[in-house]
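Thread: Newbie trying to understand structure tokens

Hi all, I'm a second-year student working on a class project, and my supervisor (Dr. K.) asked me to get a predicted structure for one chain before our next meeting. I've only ever worked with sequences, so writing a 3D structure as a token string is new to me. If someone could post the tokens and maybe explain what I'm looking at, I'd be very grateful. Here's the chain:
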Amino acid sequence: TAAGYNYSPSVTEVVTGTDGKLHIEGIDWGDFYLKETVAPTGFRLPAEHERKVLFSVGRNNCGDTPQELVMKNESAAAQLNIVKQIDRYNEEAWGKPIFIFKIRQTERYDFANDTFVVIDTANQRTLTKVISPTTAIVGGGYADETGTFDIEPGAYTVTEVRVARYSAADTSVTTPGEGSGGLVTAVSNTDYTASLRVKPNGVAVITFFNELTNYEKLSHADNVNNRFNGCKAIKVEDKYGLTLDTDVGNHLYSVTVSKSELSPVVIKGDGSSAAINGSNLSDLAISSTETDISVTDNGSSITVTGRKEDVSGSIYKLNAVYKGTFTDEFELRFSPDSLFSKTEKTVVFRNDVQNRSYFEDSGEKNGVYTLQFIMEETTSGASATQTVRKILHNGISTGKTDQTAFPTLYIDNDFSSQVEFDKWSYTYNDGSEHTGMLNSAELLEVIRNAPDGTEIIVTARLKNKS
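---
Reply by user tm_fold:
Sure, no problem. This is what the structure looks like when written as tokens:
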């Protein structure tokens, strides 16, 4: 500083009102800054270098017109880090192992009341993360992690997708990350699933443990004592691409598979094999100790039930016993595509501004009316399996499955007695343009055939009643 300059800084602490605003007056000329030290509930402090707002007071800006200064805060997020540990991997034989995790939010965090609010099942969404643990760790084994990533504060269920060759070695563990004591609660932990609640600024760390399974099998030497009805063993081949048979609502599934589709065979004393089919299938008992699915043996078939969002793309181990003597373990695989038959598309209905019209929504007049179409959902009817298309409005069923679900057009101008509804025009949110005019039935077909996840912007057009 220049000689003789007397710099004597002072700090005054001020607090905003509930509206987030400050009014400061009566300060001397000079250079100042405002520095945020405590963020409002539900928000996070900016980075250190962004917490100061600089300003000056002098001859040219000390009049009656106040200076307006703005500081912005981002909403406080929570964070999650998933860690995967395995005992070993055989890269030469199997390649690097890859593990998939599904993160489903079941509750949202209410900032105002510091509580957790349940999210309706139909509106829950799932995030997917992938880990390939290839980093050697002290004491043996391998590990890797996703690293911390932002999630909305709330309650979550994190599920590991079952994979071939690896089984759970221990219960998963949820711990609060550094500096987030009291902000993370582990609701429950199992081998493949962890449920937790995390508040704003909380960091949750979940660790899953697996061990490599040895698939080699040993058998006795062939002698008469090992034979039973001319057989000495049973083998059930893997079943791939299990398809959805009956959707029982929400995110649940029920799949019935004939035992013949599992390709069961018996190994005879001379080493030859023969298929088990026909009436002999009832001698083949199928069971499972898996917690995510339940298996019912129907004699000639098995029925598997569970929650499809958790098991889609997973591999489960089932037990087979033939004539109460010969046992085998085989894999039941769930295709990720076949279990997700529902296609979600959003339709936003807007005014034709030129015609000064708008829609009536539950008795209130609105300019935007949003419907969510869940297409191709199979249900079991009274006499046979049938396919219906459920239509939701803001997550709530409209009770309609066809073009009658479109909103009631309400014309609000001085010429309402002279004009009437004509047709729809539409565009996609991907920027593609579609200018064709459609009636309601044709528009429904457009929606059905639109790409997955599409938002379709629909505009109503009017015509003269004459």
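A couple of things are worth pointing out once you decode it. Residues 79 and 149 are 5 Å apart (CA to CA). The first strand starts at residue 30 and ends at 35. Feel free to ask follow-ups in this thread.
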